[in-house]
Amino acid sequence: MGAKTAISVEQYLHTTFPDVDREYRDGEILNRTMPDYLHAKTQLILGAFFLALKNALRLYPCSELRLRLSANTFLIPDICVFHPEEPALAVPDQPPLIVIETLSPDDRMSDVRAKLGEFKAWGVPHVWLVDPHGQLMYTCDQGLAEVPSLRVPELNLEITASDIFA
């Protein structure tokens, strides 16, 4: 096993990667799984859903945006939605209203659950997991719960399986 090389936050923030952007925790670059077609399609559908509501609900959806959860932790959700204001920073350090992870075939569920838990602990009110292969949706509160729809009650907003998987 090779030794890990720590890099600074500044180095991380000024690094581009040739394929999928990487996450960062305590000096270590963290790999993310490569998305497949269903992942990419689902991610686009979800982004388009929120983008269509941008003006009416003052939503600011983003795809694969680096978020600064702490001084030494940067995670990248597949989709995040800010409300009612756009983030003030290029790398936001305040929780969005919604974070959505889309499951890829190579994802390890223990890693996905841990990441979702970090978003919830950071203060994201709505943390969701969408599984395009199983056509399932989950919310993350105290663990994952399979749900028939994804809801944002404060916006009177609901996303059903037919909105995503049709």
Q: Which helices and strands, and how do they pair?
A:
Blueprint: H1 9-13, E1 23-25, E2 28-30, H2 37-52, H3 54-57, E3 60-63, E4 67-70, E5 73-75, E6 79-82, E7 98-102, H4 109-122, E8 126-131, E9 136-141, E10 143-147, E11 149-152, E12 157-160, H5 161-165
Parallel strand pairs: 7-8
Antiparallel strand pairs: 1-2, 1-5, 3-6, 4-5, 6-7, 8-9, 9-10, 11-12
Main attributes of the structure:
166 residues, 5 helices, four-stranded antiparallel sheet, single chain, 12 strands, alpha+beta, six-stranded mixed sheet
Explain what this protein looks like in three dimensions.
- Helices cover 27% and strands 31% of the residues.
- It contains five helices and twelve strands.
- The chain has helices at residues 9-13, 37-52, 54-57, 109-122, 161-165; strands at residues 23-25, 28-30, 60-63, 67-70, 73-75, 79-82, 98-102, 126-131, 136-141, 143-147, 149-152, 157-160.
- The protein has a six-stranded mixed sheet with strand order 3-6-7-8-9-10, sandwiched between helices.
- The longest helix is centred in the first third of the chain and has 16 residues, at 37-52.
- It is globular.
- The termini are far apart.
- The mean pLDDT is 93.
Brief summary:
This protein has 166 residues and is of the alpha+beta class.
What's the total helix number? 5
Low-confidence stretches: none
Mean pLDDT: 93
Helix/strand order:
HEEHHEEEEEHEEEEEH
Structural class: alpha+beta
- Helix fraction bin: 25-40%
User: What's the story with the biggest beta sheet?
Assistant: 6 strands, mixed
| Overall form | globular
What is the rounded Rg?
16 Å
Beta-strand content:
25-35%
Spatially, the strands of the biggest sheet line up as 3-6-7-8-9-10
Tell how many strands the DSSP assignment holds: 12
Measured between the Cα atoms of the first and last residue, the distance is 45 Å
